[in-house]
Amino acid sequence: MTIKSDDPPPVPLADIAVVFSRIGISSFGGGLVAWIRREAVERNRWVGDREFLSGLALSQVLPGANMTNLAVYLGLLLRGGLGAVTALVALLWLPSIFIIFLYEIYERLHGLGALHFVLDGVAAAAIALNIATGIHAIRRSRSAVTVAVAGAVFLAVGVLHWSMLLVVACLAPVSIVIAWRRRHG
Amino acid sequence: MDKWGMDRWGWDEHAVWGLVRIFAPLSLLAIGGAPSILAEMEHQTVDVYGWLTQRDFVDLFAISRAAPGPGTLIVTLIGWKAAGLAGAVAASVAFYLPTSLIIYGVASIWRRYRSAPWREPVEHGLAPIAIGLIFAGAYAVLQSMTSGVLAFGTTAVAVALLLWKPINPIILLSGAALTYGTIYALA
Questions:
Q1: What is the pLDDT along chain A (185 residues), one digit of tens a residue?
Q2: Does some domain include residue B169?
Q3: Which residues fall within 8 angstroms of residue B165, CB to CB, at 6 or more apart?
Q4: B53 neighbors B23 (Cβ within 8 angstroms)
Q5: What is the pLDDT of residues A121-146, one digit of tens each?
Q6: Per the domain annotation, does B35 fall within a domain?
Q7: Which residue range(s) make up the domain with B105?
């Protein structure tokens, strides 16, 4: 990692608006984690991987829609309050209009039939985007601790349906202490 | 009023405030995103307010998951169905505003301590938590899919492709749509 400056060159608000609008309208079937990471980390290099993932963790743990939380977090990081508002509104406006159109079509067709089925396929592929993002993140970390902690969280929350808050409240401190000890010997 | 008996451009004060009263508190209970509040959302909008039938709710859920954007857009759609444009705006603002303020507050503190010595280990420690939650979320959605084994197969193939080489997501999603469309036409 390079040295972090306190005030990195500001990202133009227009860029934030364009990028989050693009994410909003591209992300058919979900998979937003993958889309946002692709734009914020890979294509525009606004944030590093760790900063992205820690923001994602906060977004997931705090109440509300995870992906709008992440948009607010990234917007704030890049351009303060205006950036946060821009990212949030940009992410939502196109899909909101789109979904209302989709609903009106659905009302007139009286059901979804083939469309319903096809959209299920799109959603299945969109989930794959998120899973691949998770696997890539594990590979990059090259650490057994990451695998163990991520695996435990998945098992407890995803499979056993334990309370997410409780699981995170127990495992996050453990994970942070491990990271701290590795760094400070 | 159109033939569905719904005024999309009017102002139904009762419905608009009802939407705000439902969605502002619900958003604060949405820990881990929309899945955690879907049951209560259904109860309020179907049983308590009667804006939708149960069948409507299932369909709106399907539409919101397939459309682009966050899955929580079902909130906007329920607002639209209950009270037209005013309802869509009211439901969205009620749902997104309070929790945006919370993450805004937390992220501001987070940003202020950007160079604090504990920042790096905390970031390191939180990363695997986020990864685990990504998998948990993916698993929950997969289980809710109506196409069952086919969905698992599609996801597995798509993951394999993505790990093999970087594929443009749009191409991947179009491929899945084409595959499903073909299967539907043949079956």
A1: 445 555 567 899 999 999 999 999 999 888 899 999 999 999 999 999 989 999 999 999 899 999 999 999 999 999 999 999 999 999 999 999 999 998 998 888 766 677 778 878 888 898 999 999 999 999 988 889 999 999 999 999 889 988 888 898 999 999 999 989 987 76
A2: no
A3: none
A4: no
A5: 888 898 999 999 999 999 988 889 99
A6: yes
A7: 1-112
Are the C-beta atoms of residues A162 and B112 closer than 8 Å to each other? Answer: no
Chain-chain contact of A72 with B104 (C-beta, under 8 angstroms): yes
Would the CB atoms of A114 and B60 count as touching at under 8 Å? Answer: no
For A97-163, the DSSP string reads: HHHHHHHHHHHHHTS-THHHHHHHHHHHHHHHHHHHHHHHHHHHHT-HHHHHHHHHHIIIIIIS---
**Does B172 touch chain A if contact means CB atoms closer than 8 Å?**
yes
Query: Which chain A residues are closer than 8 Å to B141 by Cβ?
Result: 30, 123, 127
Please count the structural domains in chain B: 1
* Contact residues on chain A for B70, CB-CB shorter than 8 A: 30, 32, 65-68, 91-92, 95
**Does any domain span residue B173?**
no
Asked if residue B131 lies in contact with residue A146, where contact means CB atoms within 8 angstroms, the answer is yes
Delimit the domains of chain A by residue range. Answer: 13-110
Do the domain assignments include residue B182?
no
pTM of the model: 0.89
